[in-house]
Amino acid sequence: MNVLFRALALALLLLAQVTGVGATTFDVAVSSFRFTPNDLTIQVGDTVRWTNTGGFHNVRADDGSWGNTSSSAAWTFSHTFTAAGDVAYFCSEHAIPGGNINTGMNGIVRVVQGTPAFQINQGIPGSWFNPATGGQGMLIDLALDPKFMFVAWFTYEKAPPPATLAGGNAKIGTTTQRWLTASGPWDGNTASLTLYSSSGGVFDNGTPVTTLPVGTLTLTFENCSTATAAYSIPGEGLSGTIPISRSATIGMGVLCQSLIPATAE
After folding, report:
1. What is the pLDDT of residue 192?
2. Which of these three, 82, 112, 142, is where a domain ends?
3. Which has fewest Cβ within 10 Å: 84, 167, 211, 259?
């Protein structure tokens, strides 16, 4: 019987079963007053599966957030990790929370944020817009070193102004048009930007404008053609997400696609 337990433990140690796109299940054997392996590094979204191969044991998180009931049966218990960080666990029959994993029946799972499949590259710059709201959109530009992105967001006021203000002397555009910009760092497939509002400008006039930070804009790119813009403008009670797509900018979509590593396609 001990030979069978050792063989099963070895098989579990070597096994990492892919259960879905970007998600993996890692196996840990529970036997001989030890978790094998007792120190795992996984990615957010991965699952760890503990299998009891001999003895009266259980597995519980140090903080008590998950666990199972002690048993000598050949049980299995699985937990999926949804946030990055170090998660310690133990067998409550033979150890205490916070015990040394080298001397006690304790273990640790180190959960790291995985690298997104798509990475921003030099082909992202260009015009992006939401097809459902024509006449407005974003012009995106970026630098690679340092990783910096600039966005000019052409949009409108959240409500039309009174009729007395909509006409008058307006010749280029109207008072309903809005000029927003955003800038900040990007990494992986996400740009976390500060959103600015400019006001006081006059067409073809050198009068300085006033530009103030008003919120945040986060752009998350799924691929070379689609992205999501999440915005927050607290002072005006505005927040939400907008799906945006690349407009027909000549050549940039082709360039973006050509810069995707073969392993990420």
Report:
1. 96
2. 112
3. 167
